[in-house]
Each structure stands twice: as C-alpha cells, then as structure tokens.
Design a protein that fits this description.
Length: about 260
C-alpha cells in the first residue's frame, strides 16, 4: 500500500476548517494546529509539524508572514507550504527553506470561524496557485476546486474587482437606505442577498482594505465609469445593454459554474 501523504492545516477558521473537514482521511494523514479548537488530530503548537508533505497556512492575513517565518526554522525543502490569503501583497518575496507556493481558494461565505466551515465548500470553485505542483494541484482537485495559475500582482488586481469590491458595494448599498425607513420596511430577498457581504468577517475586511487599497480604488474607478455610462444611456439603450449583460452573465455561470477559464 502506498504511503499516505501527510498534510497539516494551520488555522481552523472558515477556510482551514473546511479543508480539514473535506480532505479524504483514507488518502491523507491529516493534522491541524489551532489555538482555539480541540479534537482528534488537532494540536496547540508546532511540535507535530515533522515529515510533512504539504502545509496549508490558513491564518488571518496579518498573521501569515509571521507564521511562514516560524515555519522556516521547522520545515525543509521537501515540504510544500501554501497560504490561502485573498491578497498576496501581505506576503514578502523571499526564499524559504521549504517549497512555498502562494494560493487562494475563490470560495467562502459571509460567515467565519470553525463552526461555519463545512465539507464541500470548495466544490466548483477556482483556486489560484502561483506555480503548478503535482501534489498541491491533486489535493485542490480532490477538494472539488480547479487550480488556476496566476502571478501575485494579477491576482491582487483581479481579486479587487471580483472579490473585494462586492464587499464595498454591499456596504454602500446598505448604507444608502439608513435614513429611509420606508425602504427598510420594503427590503426583502433581493436586498438581503445583495447586502449579504456586509456580514463578512471584520478582520478580513480590515486586511483587505489595508493591503489592496490601490487595486480597490482602481476597481471603484472602473465601476464609476460604468455607472456614468449607464446614466447617460437612453431608455432603449439601457434595455438593450441589460439584455446583453444578462446573456453574458448566463454564459459566464452556465450550470452554476464560472465557464470563463
């Protein structure tokens, strides 16, 4: 029987917890390190981080660099280490004693913490990687996601547009009705769904606004151009544009999955 690959997850929040719960224990030997969680194969310190094949660092973005530096004194070149940060600017470009690969699963919910994590979070999702690796890509696929090769600068600019800006738009939309009690009274499923991201983890939002400010501002500028263009369109032009966008949106998420890559 082939030896099971040994995988560790550091940090058991929404992402780390979902990786921990989703990995097939029949195929992999899985352990986790967490300060807040206890249970089978969950440890409080790094003592068990030996002879590992793959480590996922799933901490807060602001803590990730410090954890990578600590792991540099523990792990060696045969161990693959991958972060899951939604912004890569928070990670220094440096050489490590281990095989470091930046990554980011394009999956999540507005909830946070281990209790919010669940098996299957990554099914149908894209998972950005800075370089291809057979084991990492295999694990990503077995988690139900698709590896997408992308450099850190392109990732951060793209994430600002499709991941970070929706949080800001949700906040702006919700903020816009705060003095309108009639609008609050009528707000139903559409408004609820559009403003869901207002409930996102405050630490994540804080890191997002700090580390990706330039790209977020550029994305907001592009949005402003789009809004100004729509404002200038006639009634018929708006109707035609919305029909065109509806068709493109349907094709982009055909069968509920993003088909653009």
């Amino acid at each position: 029987m082939a030896k099971k690959a040994k995988i560790a997850i550091i940090g058991l929040g929404l992402i780390g917890g979902s990786i921990f719960k989703s990995l097939d224990k029949r195929k992999y030997e899985v352990i986790a390190v967490s300060k807040s969680q206890k249970g089978k194969n969950i440890y409080q310190n790094y003592d068990k981080l030996k002879n590992l094949d793959l480590v996922f660092v799933c901490s807060k973005m602001s803590d990730t660099q410090g954890i990578l530096d600590n792991l540099n004194d523990i792990l060696d070149k045969k161990t693959i280490v991958s972060d899951v940060c939604s912004i890569k600017k928070c990670i220094k470009d440096k050489d490590y004693n281990f095989n470091f690969i930046m990554s980011h699963p394009m999956a999540g919910t507005e909830k946070s913490g281990y209790k919010a994590s669940f098996k299957g979070l990554f099914k149908g999702a894209k998972w950005v990687v800075s370089k291809n690796n057979p084991l990492l890509n295999k694990v990503i696929r077995e988690l139900g996601a698709k590896p997408i090769l992308m450099d850190k600068n392109t990732h951060d600019a793209s994430a600002a547009m499709v991941s970070h800006m929706p949080n800001i738009l949700a906040a702006a939309l919700f903020y816009s009705i705060q003095s309108n009690n009639s609008a609050k009274l009528l707000a139903s499923s559409g408004f609820r769904d559009m403003t869901r991201l207002v409930l996102s983890d405050s630490y994540l939002l804080s890191d997002m606004l700090e580390y990706n400010e330039k790209n977020i501002n550029l994305s907001l500028n592009e949005l402003e151009k789009s809004l100004n263009k729509i404002k200038k369109l006639s009634y018929n032009e708006r109707v035609n544009l919305f029909k065109e966008l509806s068709s493109k949106r349907e094709k982009m998420y055909k069968n509920g999955k993003n088909q653009t890559t």
